[in-house]
Amino acid sequence: MITLTVIIYCRHYGSKDLVRDGYAPNEKQKYRCRSCKKRIRDNTASNGYTEEHREEILKSYQERSSLRGIIRTFRIARNTAKWRDWRQAPVYREWRCQVFR
């Protein structure tokens, strides 16, 4: 039988002195660093959207859907729908070039 030991370090302080601190809403274990008092999660994933999902949202935005409708349809946060990040998508740049010629 092989036993695997995983040691988790604080990303902020670099300490191994972590204690369990409950679970996140996505059921991942949370830890609290005793040295710097910050909280971290195990195996954090990117909070961003995939490129396909971003393009789909942008296409509906280009079809003049309301922001409330997009938020409700795609279940994205209201702050996400402010389109700061979305303007970096290739579809938006291509659309903007066509519209503003």
Question: What does this entry look like structurally?
Answer:
The chain has helices at 51-62, 67-74, 90-99, and strands at residues 18-23, 29-33, 39-41. It is of the alpha+beta class and 101 residues long. The protein has 2 domains: 1-44, no CATH class; 51-99. It has a 3-stranded antiparallel beta sheet, with no helix packed on it. A hairpin with a 5-residue loop joins strand 1 and strand 2. Helix 1 (51-62) packs parallel to helix 3. The protein is elongated and about 55 Å long.
Structure summary:
With 101 residues, the chain is of the alpha+beta class.
> How many structural domains are formed by the residues?
2
Question: What fraction strand?
Answer: 5-15%
Outline = elongated
Q: How many angstroms separate the termini?
A: 67 Å
Give the oligomer, counting copies of the same chain as homo and different chains as hetero.
single chain
